[in-house]
Amino acid sequence: MKVKLLSIVLFTSFLTSAQLYTPSGTVQASSNNHIGIGTNTPAGILDINANGNIPIIRGNGGYIPTGLRFIDDSYTQSGQVKEWSIWKGNTWAKGLAFMRYDAISPCSTGICDVPLFLADSGNVGINTNSPQEKLSIHGKHVGSAILLHADNGSNAPADLMLWASEPGLTYSGVGIGNNIRNYVGGGASMERINASKGGSYIRLLDNEINFNLVSNTGTKHQSLTLHSNGNASLQGKFEVKEIKVTSTPTADFVFDENYDLPKLEEVEQHIREKKHLPEIASAHVMEKEGVNIGEFQIKLLQKVEELTLYSIEQNKQLKSQSEKIQQLQKENKALKLQSEEINELKKIVQQLLTEKKINHHEKKITFCIFSVDRVFRVFTNRSLFQI
To answer: Is the pTM of this model over 0.85?
Structure first.
């Protein structure tokens, strides 16, 4: 008992002088006014030389069984963080929490939050002690952004920002921006981080998505919007290598046997009166209301199919006319041969008349001449005697 009392007295005296070190687990005086654990020359007020023997702060259940507190007593004003603490929670929150406390009324009206929490589940929380995912970041509407900054010396810096609120626009909107800050105070939003550069950002809203561009002078332009009904609106030109439009019905109904193909005379009259094709919107309507590409393509296909039917019918007519022309050419060739024969007969008759060798067979020759003349009239509607 006396030995124990002596040890306590000696230990108390050593603590009072604050000149301790512990070689081989024994308490001895240090060479300065600091406390050393595992060293007799502690460099700080408490110097632990673990040398492979890691110090342990142990607890055994409870609300917050173990922890460390770092306090700066010079902080005395409200809004100043006087204390940072590391708590190993149990029934409070299962994990390791890094907390900060206000100099005035912490956890009442002053600062009292968890900037970082490492949950026993392996999840990491920022401003929350109950992270639901591998990384969960909680914040208020103002100050809810994450900034990724890259600065490569002579190269221009780059800034990528993610946000879960748009205080200057809509509180429920989230987004991502290149050189864009979601809120800068005073109601301003979507302003550039680096004013010498342009930027771009995407706003993910409750029922639509906006794609926006910002020039190097700060001019904002919403170029593309995806709406909740599946429609998309683009402010500007649209260039693609391929586009596919699915639409029903098609225009194959034109080839149905019961399809009432408009007469060309009716189409001509409509064009003269309306200055556009039937069932095709006028230029004025297109400029005012735009053009539905799918429907417009079907209408154009309908007109092409109608034109095909017109061409088929015209081809039939041309073929029929061609056959008639060929028949007429054959008949004309036969007439030409007959005409040549008649001309030969005419020459013979004229020769006989010239030589005045009409004999007793004159009447028969005259009869022949008139017979030939009658045949000639049938084919030429002219008399030999008119030639």
So the answer is: no
